[in-house]
Give the backbone structure.
Amino acid sequence: MGLFDFVKGIGKKNTAPAEPQAAPATPSEPSAQEIANKLLGHVKSLGLPVTGLSVSYNGTSDLATVKGQVQSQADREKIILAVGNIDHVAQVDDQLTVASPEPESKFYTVKSGDSLSKISKEFYGDANQYNKIFEANRPLLKNADDIFPGQVLRIPA
């Protein structure tokens, strides 16, 4: 558990359907509740196994807070990245609990000109290990070329 930093405004636009909300939508800037509902809908759309998932968002500090229980460290990290790699979010407050704690993965922020092969060469000394990074970030990545500068990726040991 902890606080994770992301680059606000660089992440993907959140196009996932929002969870049902009480307040009506406004045509201008989305409310904190609307953003929280979209973040929750985004995580649910990925099909990651989590029990009791809730996401809140503070528009003043661009902080998203995630709560719930997951079985693995990998699922925990994927949920954090799914929320943090969205354009409105600058920080994620991880309040998820893990049923079977494991060592944490390293996180890497993609730079301009990076590819999974280049990142793999940096971390593993072998560009051909890129699929290890790709698989560690599924379903967040749909293909190996689906990365962008500022995005944060999991780098497994």
